Amino acid sequence: xxxxxxxxxxxxxxxxxxxxxxxxxxxxxxxxxxxxxxxxxxxxxxxxxxxxxxxxxxxxxxxxxxxxxxxxxxxxxxxxxxxxxxxxxxxxxxxxxxxxxxxxxxxxxxxxx
Amino acid sequence: xxxxxxxxxxxxxxxxxxxxxxxxxxxxxxxxxxxxxxxxxxxxxxxxxxxxxxxxxxxxxxxxxxxxxxxxxxxxxxxxxxxxxxxxxxxxxxxxxxxxxxxxxxxxxxx
Lengths: 113, 111
Description:
The structure holds 2 protein chains of 2 kinds.
Chain A: E1 4-7, E2 10-13, E3 19-25, E4 32-38, E5 44-51, E6 57-58, E7 67-73, E8 76-81, E9 90-96, E10 103-104, E11 108-112
Parallel strand pairs in A: 2-11
Antiparallel strand pairs in A: 1-3, 3-8, 4-5, 4-9, 5-6, 7-8, 9-10, 9-11
Chain B: E1 10-14, E2 19-24, E3 32-38, E4 45-51, E5 56-58, E6 62-67, E7 72-77, E8 86-93, E9 100-101, E10 105-110
Parallel strand pairs in B: 1-10
Antiparallel strand pairs in B: 2-7, 3-4, 3-8, 5-6, 6-7, 8-9, 8-10
């Protein structure tokens, strides 16, 4: 149980494009989902907490207008990287769980040219 | 976990050896601890967890040890196999607060 699916797994796009990443809980309902960012050879850094039916909570230093989060249902949260630039290239990972421990999706590799 | 984020320590072992991966955490209020395994290009995969009312927990080929006095956590992998090669992260969680990841350790297993 507690399967988290993320889509797409890999995306390459031009600078200035907006990119949407989906995170789904497949076999449970998730009122809360988490979005992380990971640079090569580094740890996971929490970007924001996505709350179903309400605004996301962003970590210090994360631009909420840059990284739009929508959690419109109990099984889906989306992260939209708006007007993406090369410095936004990274590995984005979501997590959710009905209880502990948190289970993670397989991540989305975002490359901005 | 203490996420420095600048360099990934590496542990190299031979197949069949036992591996010990260490982690320090900083928040004395943390009461829940997890080890994750992350293979290249994938998300973290849960290995084992432990609560602060325990100092040892065993799973299949893995053991987690918790020393709250010095805020130290370790993961022991018995009879390490090439398939165990990955990056291992510890994470800690104080109460209802967020999960905090450690720096990570890369485990390389040679056949």
